[in-house]
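Chain A, query sequence.
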Amino acid sequence: MRETRAALLFISPWIAGFLIFTCWPVLYSGYLSLTDYDVINDPNFVGLDNYRQLFEDPKIGLAFRNTLIFAALSVPAQLLVSVALALLLNSAVRASGLFRTVFFLPKMTPPVAVGILLLMLFNGQNGLINSFLGIFGIQGPAWTTDPAWIKPGLVLMSLWTVGASVIILFAALRAVPQELYDSALVDGAGWWRRTTRITLPMISPTLFFLVVVDSINALQSFTEAYTAFFGSGNTTYSNDAALFYVIYLFQQAFEFLHMGYASAMAWVLFVVIMAITAVQVLVSRRVVHYEGPRT
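Chain A, predicted structure.
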């Protein structure tokens, strides 16, 4: 009991912070989702009207569709790039520490700066990406004005911050027993067969973790797209294709002061994320390999 009390004492600042700054706001937002609240006046209880309004708002469907398309494109792209870079890093004999630092540094870039960088790199007229494509005689698309290319451009920019995933995968690769590779070499297995039959199954729990985390992050995408297409009254670029769900939620809450409606949107997003995560967990039982017997 003395050790338990000491442990609770040490973690009490975190417990207090969690209850005050996380748990209470979440519960209060559930109450606000049942009210008409504009910050200025007291909340007016309206029941489920906000949730009914969600099904009548055409922009909800647009924002959800944009968000799901972005998540479906960005999560596999980030995973593939992260695995490729981690494999390269794992094969580096020298200066692996330097490369780990180089891969992780872009993750430290503020998201607002990434959003501004997107407009500079993907400008359809004189952006660096289209200038590079022009060297090979390729006419680059209008990344920031063509609705068909806005989300692919955002997906490419999301690859800027895969450094954390690379480091996590690198740690998983280092934990794969070397004797498995030695046995495969004796049997004549090539690089591709060793990768698909040994490496990927052995790091599948880490891959699953990254898929879940990246999916949640993609469904909550906000800063980069908002900075590039909605920030500072931006009306130069087409923004309907970049209207993600959280951006629309932010607009309802802090631009239109529809706090009750925004709270209902937040709870719907929470349910959607939970449902998608539950499906991923069910699928993982068939494709993820864990060491040791299952319980």
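DSSP finds 14 helices and two strands in the chain. The two ends are 31 Å apart (CA to CA).
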